[in-house]
From TrEMBL, chain A:
The lineage of its organism: Bacteria, Pseudomonadati, Pseudomonadota, Alphaproteobacteria, Rhodobacterales. Residues 94-291 form the ABC transmembrane type-1 domain. InterPro entries: BPD_transp_1_N, MetI-like, MetI-like_sf. It comes from the Bacteria. Coiled coil: none annotated. This is ABC transporter permease. Belongs to the binding-protein-dependent transport system permease family. Its main location: membrane. The chain crosses the membrane at residues 98-121, 142-163, 275-298. Keywords: Cell membrane, Membrane, Transmembrane, Transmembrane helix, Transport. One of its GO terms (biological process) is transmembrane transport.
Automatic annotation (TrEMBL), chain B:
It comes from Pseudooceanicola sediminis. Belongs to the binding-protein-dependent transport system permease family. It comes from the Bacteria. Residues 104-293 form the ABC transmembrane type-1 domain. This is ABC transporter permease. It is a multi-pass membrane protein. Pfam families: BPD_transp_1 (PF00528), OppC_N (PF12911). GO terms for cellular component: plasma membrane. The chain crosses the membrane at residues 38-59, 106-132, 139-161, 167-185, 225-250, 270-292. GO terms for biological process: transmembrane transport.
Amino acid sequence: MLKYILLRGLLALAVAFTVSLAAFFLLNIATDPAQAIAGEDATQEVVQTIRARYGLDQPLPVRYGQWLVGVLQGDFGESYYWHKPVAELVAERAGVTITLALAALSVTILIAIPLGALAALNPNTWLDRMALGVAVSAQAVPNFWLGLIMIILFAVMVPIFPVSGDDTWRHFVLPAFVLGASSVPAVMRLTRTGLIEVMSADYIRTARSKGFRGGALLRRHALRNALLPVISVLAVQLGQKFGGSVITESIFAINGLGRLALESILGADIPTVQMLIFVFAIVFVAMNLLADILNAALDPRIRIS
Amino acid sequence: MTQSTTLNAEVKTAATEEAAPFTPRQLMRRRALSHTGFLVGAGLIAALALIALFAPLIAPHDPFVQSLSSRMLPPVWDDAGTWDHILGTDQNGRDYLSRLIYGARVSISIGLGAASIGLLLGVSLGVVAGYFGGWVDHGVSFLLTAQLALPGLLLAMALVFIIGPSIWVVIGIIGVLHWTYYLVVTRSATQRIRSLDFVAAAAASGATPRQIIWHEIVPNLIPQIIVIFTFELGIAILAEASLSFLGVGIQPPTPSWGLMIAEGKQAMFYRPWLVVLPGMCLFTLVIGANLLGDGLRDITAPEGRS
């Protein structure tokens, strides 16, 4: 088990650094950072000075090496735009995004699992069809549009929640719903198929014949097994929430990593973009690793093979 | 669409199959005609494709012509609305219905272009990895894991912004970032087909790997590739809309639904239809693609339905 985790961990790290390498080359080939800092109409000398000052006159592989050495020491470089260490910027903003991502995941769980269970326990009824309809619709709704509609409905027409900001828990309700809704179809479908499969298993029939009915049967026998795959998918979905925060945070004016990403892109602030891509990739691979480990820990069949 | 009707349909076709044998094509047509989701999806996509194709004939006005005197006119259901501008006008006095009609062109062409690029990349990698296996497969798997870990939207935004937004850049970047689904499916399908007898027979009769891939494997992947293409169409359309909404996609004055939502956002508290309508268009197009994809999957491979 330990060897398995270590191996997967190493692979995850390798993936994260490959991503950072790809992002570094793509971002730096596509643009001239010195020109971006200096501005469109700067003279050639100014651009040259900046190029020398930020070490941008070095060949690309050398610069990636320098970036890598810095990263291993916790130094992600200085923001071209805010003129302070990128790591500091990210640390300041990370808390809000973590809160948002966790709140969004809670929304997903609260909607998708009951809906999936209802559908599975009443297969081929109107409940099942309604749950499927919700999943199909949620998959087709543009996330940013859902956010605006939520603002129109619940912040303007029926002013229950604030329009934007991140000061109180009430500010997080609408964004968490919007960000969480995008994971509902996958989690709901998985809960439904898992539960349908489990409900037809022999041990459920045995439990039934022993007199277990309704809630007890569901809690003690069915859900526990059906939710195994759901838990690992939830971990993966949580990893995706960070990348998904870009749209939600920009709509609701939440000062987190997603908004920082948009601002740094529009400001051609390459070091910040580079670190954010790296951080999002790390979060994603970490969550996938967690999902693998959870799967192995919760399901003894996987551990053996 | 519903589980019960498709199940019944299947039982029925299975029963009639024994009574009178159908060709596979006839069977497929029967399944298609009894599949509600497929019919709805195909209908929506066909309607929107026709609208996009014949936009100049359908649109009541030129979508680019601005008019200062007729800015922000309300739609016809409003008391002040007129039939001249059925859905009103935008902040530049352009006819909203005409812009929505032309928006279908932008969405569909970007969706088709991006999904095709993803198809080329993903299917090539998938077939090669599945056929050759070994270190090629390991390499492709690593590439897949890395691509999945990339925050796609963020990288797409950064690249479009840096390279400079044009319709071709948007198509190219969305396409390059959306190949994983093709890869996963074609890789495992290739592995399966490769172990079948007819491939061994072809190899025994002296076919080169290249001939086997093109003549034996790829033709058998086509139904699955079409299904994925349909889903990816919806995904690419949403990706374009998101980029354009954030200002790093299609640029004004091109009528993109995502961009129209961004433009309407400023006035959405007084004129919510400016935001609601383009979103409904996007929703209709994407749900059409998804229903069509679901339907095609059920029709081409009913035994593999989960």
